[in-house]
Specification:
Blueprint lengths: L10 H36 L5 H8 L2 H19 L1
């Protein structure tokens, strides 16, 4: 999939993409928080290390990237007004 620059998108498309990315990022943050909490609880109660804890930590690196994209989209939307 080819990445389109924000300048080639219409304002409506950009607003729609930003809104969709906000929803997906929020859902990802919620799922990762739940996964982290459950695996941490499981590790503490069973006195063993749960490998899914590493997965939650590793996948959380996606969140700042998505937030930067949302911020860039909002900046482009504001520059068009």
């Amino acid at each position: 999939m080819k990445k389109q620059p924000y300048k080639n998108l219409t304002t409506e498309q950009l607003i729609q993409k930003a809104k969709g990315l906000k929803i997906v990022t929020g859902m990802l943050a919620g799922i990762l928080t739940a996964l982290f909490a459950l695996t941490l609880y499981n590790s503490i109660t069973n006195n063993t290390f749960d490998p899914l804890l590493v997965t939650a930590i590793a996948l959380s690196a996606i969140l700042p990237i998505n937030y930067m994209q949302i911020k860039n989209m909002q900046k482009e939307i504001k520059s068009r007004e």
